[in-house]
Every structure is written in structure tokens, then in C-alpha cells.
Design a protein that fits this description.
alpha/beta; 8-stranded mixed β-sheet; 3-stranded antiparallel β-sheet; disordered C terminus; 10 helices; 281 residues; globular
Length: 281
């Protein structure tokens, strides 16, 4: 049996629209007749993301009781029995509740891929294992949930989902990312503008690209064996990350998806892709 293919929407920061982008792709695939199911999606009560699974087949979650509390996780066995062509699995770095089939969600995904199921997943760049120290030094927050770099490196396709710091803060202020009672604290701490543009490679740190090579001057971080660097968006606003090289050994195409700076309410980024790239989906 041929191994399934892994496609990852890599978020430059929380709230840039990676889950929305993944669900949008699922609707396009379903409209074209692809057998696509939602294996696990977490909408975090974001209004525009919350309605996106409507019209898509959803595999019921598995309920697990742990320390007298009830939790739900992806039912990997149910997805395997359903055997779709494509499964959507949100939050690749998630740690499963004890009693689950696997300890980490990326391990669940490995099981689906081994069974020949294509997987579309999401993860934010701060959850890459090798960037833990760098992210903590920039944000002051240690990421407890991480995914090994090798898992991301093996992906067949990676799409970076990004937007300007100003647009992200507007989206936050309009209540499209967190509940109203959490917005002020988020804007004053993790989402301070001076931090937002610095995620990834920072000169003077010990972080290195996944392929072990030295980072070029001005690089901002690694994705899938290549490098990322800060860039200017086409509308002239600052954008935090942009692909500048990808390992020639990989079949992957790393594409960039951004939201226009004028977007103050939507959850999905604007794809900047050509006809050939769209045909691959």
C-alpha cells in the first residue's frame, strides 16, 4: 500500500487563518468529488472558522475520561475504518489526553499516512521543536507542545499562512481570534507588535535550519529544509516571513499565503498562487 501524502498549513502566528485555509481547501476538494473527511478540527469558537466544517463529513470524536474530566480526541481507529482519500487533522503538535491511541497527534497522523490516507494538517511555526529556545527568548513563553522537525521536513507540501502584524492585531481587536475578555491581555503580551515580526530565526542564536546548513544573512527561520526571511508584502506592508529557498532534495513546494493589511475581520488568508499550484490541490 502506498503511503499517504502529508500537506501542512504552517502558521506564522496564532490566528493568521491556517485552519480556515485548510477547511476552505476541503470544500474545494469535496466539490470536485474527492472523498474528504474532517478527522479533527478545533475552531476555538472563532465565528468564521466555526461554520466552515458545515457541509463536510465529520468523523465523531472519541470521548476519554481522565481524572474525572471528560475530553474528546481524534478517533484514529474510526478514521482508519472509514478510510477516506483525505483526512483533515488540525493542530499537529497537540498532546493527546492519556488513554489515547498515541501520545501526540503527529503520531496519529503517521498512522493515517501509513494506511495510505492523505492528510491535510496545521501547525504554527513556534511549535517546531528546534525553535523552542528562540521562541521563548522572543515571546517569553515556553512552548510545551512541539512537533519534531523531521515530521515537518517529510511533508509533501507546506503552505505558509501569514499576515502583517498590524492586520493580525486588528483581527484580534475585532474578536475574531480570542474571546473579548482575553483580547486586551493577548495584545499587551504575546501579540505585542514588536514581537510579532520576529518569530523564527534571530541572529546571534543557536537555532539552525532543519537541513543543518548555516542560515543566510537576514534569515528568519527554517521550513521544510529551506529558510525563511522577513519580507515586504506586495502592498508595501511588513510581512513576517517569506520562503527564500527549499531543499532540492524535496518534492515539496513551499507556498506563501497572506492576508491583505486591509483585512480586519476575515479568518482566511488570501492565496497568492498560480493555476498550476491550484491544480495540485
Amino acid at each position: 500500500m502506498a503511503r499517504g501524502k502529508l500537506r501542512i498549513y504552517l502558521g506564522a502566528a496564532p490566528g493568521v487563518g491556517k485552519t480556515y485555509a485548510m477547511l476552505s481547501e476541503a470544500h474545494r476538494r469535496t466539490e470536485r468529488g474527492t472523498d474528504c473527511v474532517v478527522a479533527f478540527v478545533e475552531h476555538h469558537h472563532r465565528p468564521r472558522t466555526e461554520v466552515m466544517p458545515h457541509g463536510l463529513e465529520q468523523v465523531p470524536r472519541r470521548r476519554i475520561t481522565y481524572r474525572d474530566s471528560a475530553f474528546t480526541e481524534m478517533d484514529v481507529d474510526a478514521v482508519l475504518r472509514r478510510a477516506p482519500a483525505v483526512a483533515l487533522v488540525d493542530e499537529l503538535a497537540h498532546t493527546n489526553v492519556p488513554g489515547s491511541r498515541d501520545a501526540k497527534r503527529w503520531q496519529d497522523v503517521e498512522g493515517l499516512l501509513a494506511a495510505g490516507i492523505d492528510v491535510v494538517s496545521t501547525v504554527n511555526i513556534q511549535h517546531l521543536e528546534s525553535l523552542g529556545d528562540v521562541v521563548e527568548s522572543i515571546t517569553g513563553v515556553r512552548q510545551r507542545e512541539t512537533v519534531p522537525d523531521e515530521v515537518v521536513r517529510r511533508a509533501d507540501d507546506i503552505e505558509l499562512v501569514d499576515m502583517s502584524p498590524q492586520a493580525l492585531r486588528r483581527r484580534m481587536a475585532h474578536g475574531n481570534i480570542y474571546q473579548p475578555d482575553k483580547v486586551d491581555a493577548a495584545l499587551a503580551n504575546y501579540f505585542r507588535a514588536r514581537r510579532r515580526g520576529r518569530t523564527g530565526w534571530r541572529p546571534g542564536t543557536d537555532a539552525r535550519p532543519m537541513d543543518g546548513t548555516a542560515a543566510p544573512a537576514g534569515a528568519a527561520g527554517p521550513v521544510g529544509g529551506g529558510h525563511l526571511r522577513r519580507a515586504q508584502a506586495s502592498n508595501g506592508t511588513s510581512s513576517s516571513l517569506q520562503t527564500c529557498s527549499v531543499s532540492s532534495r524535496s518534492r515539496r513546494v513551499v507556498r506563501r499565503r497572506t492576508a491583505a493589511s486591509s483585512d480586519s475581520s476575515g479568518d482566511g488568508g488570501t492565496a497568492r498562487t498560480g493555476q498550476a499550484a491550484r491544480a495540485r490541490q
